[in-house]
Amino acid sequence: MSAPISVALIAGGKSSRFGGEDKAFLKWRGQPLFAFQLAKFAQIDPEPAEVFLSTNGSQPFPDFLEGVTILADEESDIGPIGGLLACLEKCETDRLLVLAVDLPNLPTDFLNRLVEFGNGVVPKIGDRFEPLAAVYPKSILSLVREQIATGEFSLQKLIAKSEIETVPIETETEEAFFANLNRPEDLETIQQGLFDKPTLLERFRAGRGLIKSEDVVAAEEPLELRIDDRSVAVMMRTPGHDDELAAGFLLTEGVVESGDELFEISACPDVDPDQAGNTIRAKLAPGHAVDLESLTRHVFTSSSCGVCGKATIESVFQQFKPVAAGGISVSDEVILSLPKTLRKAQETFDRTGGLHASAIFDPTGELRWLREDVGRHNALDKVIGRAVLDGNLPLSDSILLVSGRISFELMQKSLAAGIPFVAGISAPSSLAVEVAKESGQTLIGFLRDKSFNVYAGAERVKVVSK
């Protein structure tokens, strides 16, 4: 069992390079950034004995935050070492986990890895320490005081003098955890990949076989839209600009005719800080009446505040069983041949260049059925429908190839048909990868003439080429 630990959010910086706006109060996934960061501490194991919020004494934090002790820096203008000093002096455990307010990309599982190291650990990228996502031993307090007394406020030099263990950060995925918000342009840069999801995969390259690797996939999450607390729709989307998505949906569905008919659009923050804010509420302007029954998209009712990818996947497995382990085995040569076979068979695509395709192959690469449509989901429904009408379900000995990207809904449909092997010319979404791992399906993306990525179920891929 891990030793008790205290935790501290360092939020007292001046934000001088951020145009005067206090970073701690930036809106992040529907809530102030400091609240988003504090929520991560609720998932630390073991449960923190104390939670501190380090401030500069002049910030407009609430007078009371449940379970949080607010500490003002005793000395001003000395940087984050002042916050570290204040928290170590009040800390009643032998170690303190520190997190900076402007490191929003750091996930809770990484923080828990730091906690597991023991009495003290600091991540290190190249020659530089990352002192504001680290565990400090209480015993370092005297060294902190000594360094401040000499007028030296560098945390880099503090750690170099100490005997704290370091852990090297060697992957691009983990380096991205430490992207911080120093300037307004940093915010824009971080938000561009804010919801990307890291994943482990196996890359196949002709002549090299399968190589384990890391990558990121575009996030896909459900967004529940509520109007005056009534659930009216759930849309699968990439998180970000959700207020715009909601406003556009309400206009195109005829709920409003202009922005004047919208009083407010606000996000409902999730309990889990690593999830996107997956419920959004729209309040209509006073006096604006609307027939909500006229909405044309599927309505999903949720009693909780927020829907998430995990709940969405669980609902799939309540309806469809995972595929059986083992079963078909497909060689790399067959896999690499599929796009060419699909292309030859896509007569309509050659005429118009505007249709999506779904195709069913046997394990030897023989094409069984191909269907095209302007809609990706329609093309897959058609090819599965052919199997239904012919009495060929489940398609447990089949390969599905889709001409575009692979979404959650395509994986859901393939699972309904019992297809164990799914490949796509383009990338899968984060939720598609999660479904494949949970369902036992093989999932391949970025299928090219000489390469592909295996995101799940690599045991069905047989490497025979040299």
Annotate the secondary structure layout.
Layout: E1 6-10, E2 27-28, E3 31-32, H1 33-40, E4 50-55, E5 69-72, H2 80-90, E6 95-100, H3 108-116, E7 121-125, E8 128-129, E9 133-137, H4 141-149, H5 155-161, E10 165-168, H6 172-175, H7 184-192, E11 197-205, E12 209-217, E13 221-227, E14 230-237, H8 242-252, E15 262-268, E16 279-284, H9 309-319, E17 330-331, H10 332-345, H11 347-352, E18 356-361, E19 367-373, H12 376-390, E20 399-402, H13 408-416, E21 421-424, H14 430-439, E22 442-445, E23 451-456, E24 461-462
Parallel strand pairs: 1-4, 1-6, 4-5, 7-10, 13-16, 17-24, 20-21, 21-22
Antiparallel strand pairs: 2-3, 6-9, 7-8, 11-12, 11-23, 13-14, 15-16, 18-19, 18-20, 22-23
Give a short overview.
The protein is of the alpha/beta class.
Describe the structure.
By secondary structure, this protein is an alpha/beta fold. The chain has 3 domains: 6-186, Alpha-Beta Complex (Spore Coat Polysaccharide Biosynthesis Protein SpsA, Chain A); 221-319, Ubiquitin-like (UB roll), CATH 3.10.20.10; 330-462, Cytidine Deaminase, domain 2, CATH 3.40.140. The protein has 14 helices and 24 strands. The strands form 6 sheets. An 8-stranded mixed beta sheet has the order 12-11-23-22-21-20-18-19, with helices on both faces. Strands 5-4-1-6-9 form a 5-stranded mixed beta sheet, with helices on both faces. Strand 20 (399-402), helix 13 (408-416) and strand 21 form a beta-alpha-beta unit. Helix 2 packs across helix 4 (141-149), helix 12 (376-390) packs parallel to helix 13 and helix 13 packs parallel to helix 14 (430-439). The longest helix has 15 residues, at 376-390. The radius of gyration is 26 Å and the shape is globular.
